[in-house]
Specification:
- It is built from 5 helices and 12 strands.
- The chain is an alpha/beta fold.
- A hairpin with a 4-residue loop joins β10 and β11.
- The longest helix is centred in the last third of the chain and has 15 residues.
- It is elongated.
- The protein starts with a helix and ends with a strand.
Length: 209
C-alpha cells in the first residue's frame, strides 16, 4: 500500500520543472517534451532514458544532466554542441555545422557563418544528427581545431585527393596531409610563417610529412 501511495498516489509526482542550457533557457521543443512528464511519479522517471530521449529530439544537445528532488522537482541542465567548422560543397549556400567530435548537428546559411569553412566534395552525402565517418574529413576537422589552438587564422579548408588545402589568404596556400601528424605539420607551419616574407606572387607551402 505504501509503494502504491508513493508511486501512483501522487505524493511524489513531478510538478516543478527547471530546465536551463548554456545559451540560457531551454528551447520550446525541449520544454514541451518535459511538460509531458508533469504528474509522473518521480520514482518512475529514468534519468538516463530521459537524457537520451532529449538528445535524440535535438541534435544540438551534447550532454544532459538530469536530477530529481523529492517531493516533486525535476532539474535538467543541457550542454549544447559548439560549432567548430561549417562543411559545404563549392558553390552551395547551405552549410552543415560540425563540432570538434565530428558530429553534424545543424544546417545554416553560408552567409551567416563566422567559423571556418571546410569545402568537402561529398558534403551532399552528410546528414544532420550523424557522426562523420570519412577519415579525410575528420582530419580536416582536427586540423581546424589545431589551427584555432595555435591562433593561425585562415579563410577555408578544401578536402582534396591526397591533401587538405588550407587557404591562409589570397597569397598563401598550405597543403596538409590526410593521415599524417597534424601537430607536427602545424608546428612546421608556425615556424615557416615566422620566417617567410611574402612577395607579390601567390605561394604554396607543403608541410606534409
Amino acid at each position: 500500500l505504501l509503494v502504491w501511495w508513493l508511486t501512483l498516489g501522487g505524493a511524489v509526482s513531478l510538478q516543478t520543472i527547471d530546465c536551463s542550457s548554456e545559451a540560457g533557457s531551454c528551447s520550446a521543443e525541449i520544454l514541451a517534451e518535459l511538460e509531458r512528464l508533469r504528474g509522473t511519479p518521480l520514482l518512475l522517471l529514468r534519468s538516463q532514458e530521459l537524457s537520451q530521449k532529449l538528445k535524440r529530439s535535438d541534435p544540438t544537445i551534447k550532454q544532459v544532466v538530469v536530477t530529481t528532488r523529492i517531493p516533486n522537482h525535476l532539474k535538467v541542465r543541457i550542454q549544447n554542441r559548439q560549432v567548430l567548422a561549417a562543411i559545404t560543397l563549392k558553390g552551395s549556400d547551405i552549410v552543415l555545422l560540425a563540432d570538434e567530435d565530428g558530429f553534424i548537428f545543424s544546417k545554416s546559411q553560408l552567409k551567416d557563418q563566422k567559423v571556418p569553412i571546410i569545402y568537402y566534395p561529398k558534403a551532399d552525402s552528410l546528414n544532420v544528427g550523424e557522426r562523420i565517418s570519412d577519415e579525410s574529413l575528420l582530419q580536416s576537422i582536427a586540423l581546424a581545431r589545431l589551427l584555432e589552438e595555435h591562433f593561425i587564422s585562415y579563410r577555408s579548408l578544401l578536402v582534396e585527393d591526397g591533401s587538405i588545402r588550407c587557404m591562409i589568404n589570397s597569397e598563401l596556400t598550405v597543403l596538409f596531409s590526410h593521415d599524417g601528424n597534424l601537430s607536427e605539420e602545424v608546428t612546421s607551419l608556425q615556424r615557416i610563417l615566422s620566417e617567410v616574407t611574402m612577395g607579390s606572387k601567390p605561394v604554396t607551402i607543403d608541410v606534409r610529412h
